[in-house]
Amino acid sequence: MGEVMVHLQGVRKSFGDNEVLRGVDLEVRAGEVVVVLGPSGSGKSTLLRTINHLEKVDAGLVSVDGELIGYRRRGDRLHELREREVLRQRTHIGFVFQNFNLFPHLTVLENVVEAPVSAQRRPLDQARERARALLARVGLSEKESAYPRHLSGGQQQRVAIARALALDPKVLLFDEPTSALDPELVGEVLDVIKDLARSGTTMVVVTHEVGFAREVADTVVFLDGGVVVEQGPPSRVLDDPQHPRTRAFLSKVL
Ligand code: ADP
Ligand code: MG
Predict the structure, then answer these.
(1) Ligand 1 neighbour 41 (Cβ under 6 A)
(2) Residue 14: pLDDT band with limits 50, 70, 90
(3) pTM to 2 decimals?
(4) Is 89 strand, coil or helix?
(5) What is the pLDDT of residue 62?
(6) Pocket test for ligand 1, best of 14, 15, 21, 227 (most atoms within 8 A of CB)
(7) For ligand 1, is residue 44 a contact (CB within 6 Å)?
(8) 77 CA distance to ligand 2 middle (Å)
(9) Running DSSP on this structure, what letter comes out for residue 76?
(10) Which ligand is nearest to the CA of 179?
(11) How many CB atoms within 10 Å of residue 124?
């Protein structure tokens, strides 16, 4: 495993008087696959969203590849970055949502080409070539001219993964990528994520798929009540959990 790619230190986040993250520390190394498990409402989505500054933290720091996210340090003070600087940072952080969030009016190929051309100003023919390679990788070459509404949920999610990869992200974040899918479509999406994991993509995956976590994760993080209750290799956290809350959670989902 490589250098630290994502680093959260003491991250806190409240919505009104609901403190959702209560001091989260997390390190993700280059090439590492971190799977985040935890009950509904435990702060998993909020945690992911702080990594690309979709949620602004109340306290603590987030950095990706050594770069502070959302802020610039001047002397001993932090200054919030301008929107366009935050957008630039986000181009290095891939995000795959539960509900795919494809552009409905664009074809599959156009969906994958859009960000590299508009955000990174890559030449269109080069972006297309790369997009086709990514669509081949997720098994959707023959669908490049289709519109999202004509694809199954599993196919749409695979397009969303190709789209996230098109910017060559430093880290790929997945927020319950299979929970909106019919059960028979879950496997094809997990297979794509497994393939990425094997090829050394750095990722943080929020999921309830414990089998997937066991097979793919280098590190499993169990989040409950806005704190990391337990973390370690799957063999420890899943098969020999130390904390009663981890045990209680696993006994429900397994
Ligand atoms: P999880 O993904 O683990 O289910 P979330 O991070 O989505 O948990 O939510 C944690 C808590 O934060 C929940 O109580 C949720 O209602 C609250 N929450 C999340 N986002 C917002 C928001 N934008 N405004 C108010 N409350 C929010
Ligand atoms: Mg969530």
Answers:
(1) yes
(2) very high
(3) 0.96
(4) helix
(5) 98
(6) 15
(7) yes
(8) 32
(9) T
(10) 2
(11) 10
Structure confidence by residue, pLDDT tens digits, 34-83: 999 999 999 999 999 999 999 999 999 999 999 999 999 999 999 999 99
Which residue bears the tokens 């969203």?
Answer: 49
Strand partners, 123: none
Region 133-152: what's the mean pLDDT? 98
If one residue of 13, 14, 18 were mutated to test the ligand 1 pocket, choosing by the most ligand atoms within 8 A of its CB, it would be 18
Question: Is 42 close to ligand 1, i.e. is its CB under 6 Å away?
Answer: yes
What number of other Cβ atoms are within 10 A of residue 10's Cβ? 13
Predicted ipTM of the assembly: 0.98
Residue 254 has pLDDT above 80, yes or no: no
Inform me whether the pLDDT recorded for 243 exceeds 90: yes
Q: Which ligand 1 atom is nearest residue 175's CA?
A: 2
User: In testing the pocket of ligand 1, which one of 11, 12, 20 has its CB within 8 Å of the most ligand atoms?
Assistant: 20
Give strand ranges (E) for 30-76: 33-37, 59-64, 67-68, 71-74
E-only strand ranges, the chain: 4-15, 18-29, 33-37, 59-64, 67-68, 71-74, 77-80, 93-96, 171-175, 203-206, 219-224, 227-232
- Bridge partners of 140, per DSSP, are none
For 69-114, how does the pLDDT look when each residue is reduced to its tens digit (9 = 90+)?
A: 999 999 999 999 999 999 999 999 999 999 999 999 999 999 999 9
